Structure formats: structure tokens, C-alpha cells
């Protein structure tokens, strides 16, 4: 981020402001961790701050400090619109295009508040006055840590803020195993632990609270796993009927696609999940090496994300979506086999 931008933001935050912080639709650990971490930091300067999420998120994120203060736009639209319209500053975290906020897009676009983007995804839009974009970062939570550092305020990070930021870094790096995890990431994590983040407790809260139904759904998921060895690709399908059978709750399929990617000699993985309520197929892509699922998803499935992790969607049914996916793979055979 430009030094002048940081100077201007620091000046802007010197007096109390009405501030709204927004994550993307269907927020994950990084989005909720980043928004709550920033929220708790800004409270220290007596700003009027609220986090407004476009919609609800998984139960395994609801233990986080101050999570109970988060407004859900789809359930509390009128109150949310009032706060957005009154806001002097709007921080948008963990996304870089307003359409990623779903039904909030219009009111955010119309807002005259100063917008500040903090995000690590590729190809950001230019809606924000101040943009902190870095695709090399492990997570938006790591960026929030560096943002606070740029404001010379690392001493303001307490145990609650550290807990939020640790959670987002941990989840977005796959517990620090993805290639985006750098030595700097580990230094940040070390400092967050020193500041009070209880790493083992956070890991247990996120990963060790499975329901019986979720584990049964995982079993169904693995039985649906298909391998295309000629393309070094594996994929999983989950129908709405299968989700219903195991009493699916939001977040239950988190991380399932990684089982496909963990197979020996596989460099490209996908999971296709039927969502009858939205009448779409939700897709998650993962890859190893230099094969860009961001480019693949943008080109074929109206999505995007990172080089090795991206999302997409399809408006056709589950079978047609999978058939389309398989039909595309021959064009990428050389790239996949060169990994």
C-alpha cells in the first residue's frame, strides 16, 4: 500500500467515524476473522463500527470474539441499509468486486462513504478510494495484521484480535500447508501467539467439532470421488438429495475438495455441489503447482479466486455441469501433465 495512502488513512481514523466493515457473501474463516479483527482494532479508537455480513456463515465460526455483534444483511436488511447509508468509511475485506456481496452490491455501490479495500484475490475492481491488494499474501487476515503494522499500532493487537487474525490465516492456508504460507506468515503467527492467540484451542474449535451427520456426509462424498488419471484430475459430486439425507448445514462441505487433491499424482481437483434453492451448481477448484484454477474458473465457470484455490458456479444441472467439466479437460491435458 502506498505510503501516502497509509498517511491519509491514519489521518482519517484519528477522529471517531461511523464505519461499516463488509466481508464477501458466504464468508469463510478468513473473511470473518479479518472483519472481526479489524472491528476490534477500530473500537480502540472509539469509532462507531459494525460488521455487516451479506448472509450467515457456518456454526464453527460462531465462537469467535465479538461474533455476536455481526449483522446479517439478508435477515436484517433495514438496519443494515441504515448503517451503510450513514457510514463515513466502508472497509471491504477478502473480496475485490462488489458483486461478491450479493444483495448488498447495490447499496454499497451507491454509498458515498470512503471505501477501503483489503484483499488478496486476483484482478481487483477499482471501486475503492484506497486499495491494499496483494495476491502473494496468505490471507486477508495476514494483510490486516500488516495494515495495523503500517499504522504503527501492533501494540494495539490484544488476545481477541490475535485470535481472529490467527483463525483466518490458519483456515486460508490449510493449517499452514499451502504454498502461500511464507516465512513472514510464520513470523506473523508467532507474534499473534505471543499476543494471546491460543493456537491449539483455535484449531480444535474450527476442525474438531464435527457432527455425526457431517462425517456421514464425508463418507458419501468420498464414495462419489472420481479420478481421471489421463488428466491428473479428480472430482466429487454431491446432489441436493444427498445433502438433505445427511441434514446438511452451511459449512459442512468445507475442505472436502482437498481430499480429492490429496490423491497421489493428482494436480487438479473439483467438487460440484447442487444447490436447488439458488438453482445452481456450486463449484470449488483446487490445484497444485502452477496450474491456475483462477484462470480455469474465470474462463469456464463464472468464477475466480487464487492460482491454487478458486470457486465457480453453473446454471445447468449437476450431470450437465460435470459433462462440461470433463469435455474441457482435453484442452488442458498438456498443462496438467507438465505439473
Count of alpha and pi helical runs? 14
* Number of self-contained structural domains: 2
- Tell me the name of the CATH class of the largest domain: Alpha Beta
Instruction: Give the SSE order as H and E letters.
Output: HEHEEHEHEEHHHHHEEHHEEHEEHH
Under the CATH scheme, which architecture of the largest domain would be assigned? Alpha-Beta Complex
Shape: globular
Question: Rounded to an integer, what's the Rg over CA atoms?
Answer: 20 Å
Q: What's the CATH topology label of the largest domain?
A: inorganic pyrophosphatase (n-terminal core)
Mean pLDDT across every amino acid position = 96
How far apart are the first and last residues' alpha carbons, in Å? 33 Å
| Strand line-up across the major sheet | 3-2-1-4-5-6
CATH superfamily of the largest domain: inorganic pyrophosphatase (n-terminal core)
Main sheet overview? 6 strands, parallel
Low-confidence stretches: none
Helical residues, percent: 25-40%
**What would you call the structural class?**
alpha/beta
**What percentage of amino acids are in beta strands?**
15-25%
Q: Give the beta-strand count.
A: 12
Amino acid at each position: 500500500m502506498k505510503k501516502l495512502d497509509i498517511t491519509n488513512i491514519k489521518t482519517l481514523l484519528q477522529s471517531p467515524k461511523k464505519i461499516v466493515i463488509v466481508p464477501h457473501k458466504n464468508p469463510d474463516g478468513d473473511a470473518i476473522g479479518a472483519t472481526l479483527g479489524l472491528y476490534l482494532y477500530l473500537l480502540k479508537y472509539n469509532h462507531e463500527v459494525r460488521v455487516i455480513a451479506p448472509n450467515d456463515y457456518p456454526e464453527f465460526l460462531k465462537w469467535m470474539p465479538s461474533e455476536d455483534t455481526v449483522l446479517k444483511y439478508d435477515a436484517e436488511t433495514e438496519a443494515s441499509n441504515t448503517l451503510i447509508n450513514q457510514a463515513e468509511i466502508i472497509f471491504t475485506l477478502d473480496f475485490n468486486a462488489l458483486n461478491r456481496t450479493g444483495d448488498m452490491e447495490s447499496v454499497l455501490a451507491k454509498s458515498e462513504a470512503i471505501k477501503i479495500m483489503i484483499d488478496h484475490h486476483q484482478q481487483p475492481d477499482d471501486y475503492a478510494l484506497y486499495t491494499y491488494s496483494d495476491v502473494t499474501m496468505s490471507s486477508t487476515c495476514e494483510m490486516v495484521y500488516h495494515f495495523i503494522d503500517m499504522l504503527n499500532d501492533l501494540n494495539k493487537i490484544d488476545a481477541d484480535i490475535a485470535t481472529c487474525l490467527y483463525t483466518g490465516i490458519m483456515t486460508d492456508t490449510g493449517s499452514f500447508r499451502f504454498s502461500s504460507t511464507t516465512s513472514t506468515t510464520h513470523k506473523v503467527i508467532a507474534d499473534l501467539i505471543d499476543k494471546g492467540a491460543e493456537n491449539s484451542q483455535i484449531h480444535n474449535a474450527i476442525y474438531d467439532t464435527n457432527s455425526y451427520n457431517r462425517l456421514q456426509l464425508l463418507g458419501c462424498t468420498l464414495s462419489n470421488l472420481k479420478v481421471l488419471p489421463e488428466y491428473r484430475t479428480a472430482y466429487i459430486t454431491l446432489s441436493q438429495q444427498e445433502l438433505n439425507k445427511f441434514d446438511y448445514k452451511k459449512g459442512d462441505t468445507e475442505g472436502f475438495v482437498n481430499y480429492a487433491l490429496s490423491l497421489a499424482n493428482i494436480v487438479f481437483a473439483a467438487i460440484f455441489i447442487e444447490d436447488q434453492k439458488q438453482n445452481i451448481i456450486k463449484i470449488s477448484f483446487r490445484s497444485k503447482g502452477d496450474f491456475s484454477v483462477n484462470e480455469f474458473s474465470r474462463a469456464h465457470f463464472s468464477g475466480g479466486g487464487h492460482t491454487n484455490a478458486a470457486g465457480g458456479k453453473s446454471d445447468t444441472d449437476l450431470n450437465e455441469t460435470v459433462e462440461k467439466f470433463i469435455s474441457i479437460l482435453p484442452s488442458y491435458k498438456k498443462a496438467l501433465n507438465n505439473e
